[in-house]
Amino acid sequence: MQQREEKQLEASVESLVSRVAHVKNALHSFIYKLENEYERLTWPSVLDNFALLSGQLNTINKLLKNEKTPSYRSQVIIPLLLSPDRDDELAKLTEQRVPVFSHEIVPDYLRTKPDPEVEEVEKQLTAEAARIGPEAAQKQIQTLNKLCSGLLEKLNNPRDEREAENAALRQNKPSFNPADTNALVGAVAFGKGLSKCRPPGPVAPGLSGQGPMMSGGPTLQQVTIGGGSGQQTSMGGPVPQQQGQPGKMPSSIKTNIKSASGSMHPYNR
Amino acid sequence: MEAPPVTVMPVTGGTINMMEYLLQGSVLDQALESLLHRLRGLCDNMEPETFTDHELVYLLKGQQGNPFILRARRSLSHPTAPWHLRYLGQPEVGDKSRHALVRNCVDVATSHTLPEFLNEMGFRMDHEFVANGHIFRKGAMKVVVTKLSRILVPGNTENIERLSLSYLVELSVLAPAGQDTVSEDMRSFAEQLKPLVHLEKIDPSKQRH
């Protein structure tokens, strides 16, 4: 009976040690990455590291809860020999972290009570719990149980129900509007809603049919701005809102070239 | 004398034919912060860059139907920087399974006399707008989150009003023609931005109606 327990204890301690070593390695590589590869680190890989650590902590928890694991509370560790001399064996075992097994390190490493700060907080919590009184405490327990069971129900329900709820929730908070997408793409691609000399709205494919805007500067025709505006009414262009514009020129560059050679009368447009 | 090298396109000035691969989407104002945080995490680690640009779109009307479009862009936050002239071709119709919009793209930097030069050439300014926002980079991919504003008085970039309550999000890559792995990378990056933004291939010609 004793032997079996001893064997169990040994085996469980060994597996615990190996799991803790895994966690230590994972933490070590994560810290290294954070400190040295800071520029190249991306959020998905940070999340991966956290997920790894959380998985390892989970396995440790499962191991501790395992029935084959004897209760560690019933075991006591008593230091038999303390010496201020450096112990090489110990140093090798602990990778140079504990070189001396002396009076200073024993209280920290062999501690079974929680840290003083934790003890303080726990004392406060127990005092608060005693203060509330049994009925209020009972009510709080019941609310907590209700919330937990509601959550469990939601999680255990068939997936389709959950998806429908999620879809409904998501619709309440959309983060983009497809109509806006189309409007913006239209604006960037061909000025839908941007040009003021056309009514805002989709631009008809017959862009070439409308007169261009003049942005200033002499044209090839060398017609003065004043002279140009005088011809505006005879142009018969389809866009009437050009009051602010200094003058309209004929709509194709070929026409401009022809006029420069003097063979085309400006009123002919 | 050996035969001259055979090229598909006339080689002018030693530039390779660059294509722009593009995916577009939009995000509402209230979701902008979360999108920016996500992009800061996903993209290359650099100081977040904001920009304020004034873009003018020039048209040259030929005898036949489609006008020739050039886009001139200048920075309002760096007034002494050169202007930027860009030509974007028609989107390549081809592979329907290709995930991004692909079009020919030619970019040059120019001096500040660009508007006058284009006017002399016969181009006429069709529309202009002010774009400001944030730009992120991941490798060759560029993500731009822009707020577009309409210019109320032509030439006055102070007097502007927003076009809509959303920000335009564009994911683009400039690559030589023929590299189709680019669109795969773009699509996997776009997956990481869902469900905040749906980046997709939007054909501009379909928007006209």
Automatic annotation (TrEMBL), chain A:
Q: Where is the composition biased (Polar residues)?
A: 252-262
One annotated GO biological process: regulation of transcription by RNA polymerase II
Q: Which organism is it from?
A: Knipowitschia caucasica
- What functional role does this protein have? Component of the Mediator complex, a coactivator involved in the regulated transcription of nearly all RNA polymerase II-dependent genes. Mediator functions as a bridge to convey information from gene-specific regulatory proteins to the basal RNA polymerase II transcription machinery. Mediator is recruited to promoters by direct interactions with regulatory proteins and serves as a scaffold for the assembly of a functional preinitiation complex with RNA polymerase II and the general transcription factors.
Protein name per Swiss-Prot or TrEMBL: Mediator of RNA polymerase II transcription subunit 8
Signal listed as a keyword = no
* InterPro entries the UniProt entry points to: Mediatior_Med8_fun/met (IPR019364)
Q: Which residues form the signal peptide?
A: none
> GO terms for CC?
core mediator complex; mediator complex
UniProt keyword annotations, A-Z: Activator, Nucleus, Transcription, Transcription regulation
Q: How does it assemble?
A: Component of the Mediator complex.
Bias class Low complexity marks the residues at: 231-247
- Specify where the region named Disordered lies, as residue ranges: 208-269
Q: Which family does it belong to?
A: Belongs to the Mediator complex subunit 8 family.
Q: Where in or outside the cell is it found?
A: Nucleus
GO MF term list: RNA polymerase II cis-regulatory region sequence-specific DNA binding; transcription coregulator activity
**What is the taxonomic lineage of the source species?**
Eukaryota, Metazoa, Chordata, Craniata, Vertebrata
TrEMBL record, chain B:
InterPro entries per record: Mediator_Med18
Coiled coil spans = none
The subcellular location is: Nucleus
What's in the keyword line of the UniProt record?
Answer: Activator, Nucleus, Transcription, Transcription regulation
Give yes or no: UniProt keyword Nucleotide-binding.
no
GO annotation terms (biological process) = regulation of transcription by RNA polymerase II; termination of RNA polymerase II transcription
List cellular component terms (GO). Answer: core mediator complex; mediator complex
GO terms (molecular function) for this protein are: transcription coregulator activity
Function, please? Component of the Mediator complex, a coactivator involved in the regulated transcription of nearly all RNA polymerase II-dependent genes. Mediator functions as a bridge to convey information from gene-specific regulatory proteins to the basal RNA polymerase II transcription machinery. Mediator is recruited to promoters by direct interactions with regulatory proteins and serves as a scaffold for the assembly of a functional preinitiation complex with RNA polymerase II and the general transcription factors.
Regarding protein family, the annotation reads:
Belongs to the Mediator complex subunit 18 family.
Subunit description: Component of the Mediator complex.
Q: What is this protein called?
A: Mediator of RNA polymerase II transcription subunit 18
User: Which source organism?
Assistant: Knipowitschia caucasica
| Upper taxonomic lineage | Eukaryota, Metazoa, Chordata, Craniata, Vertebrata
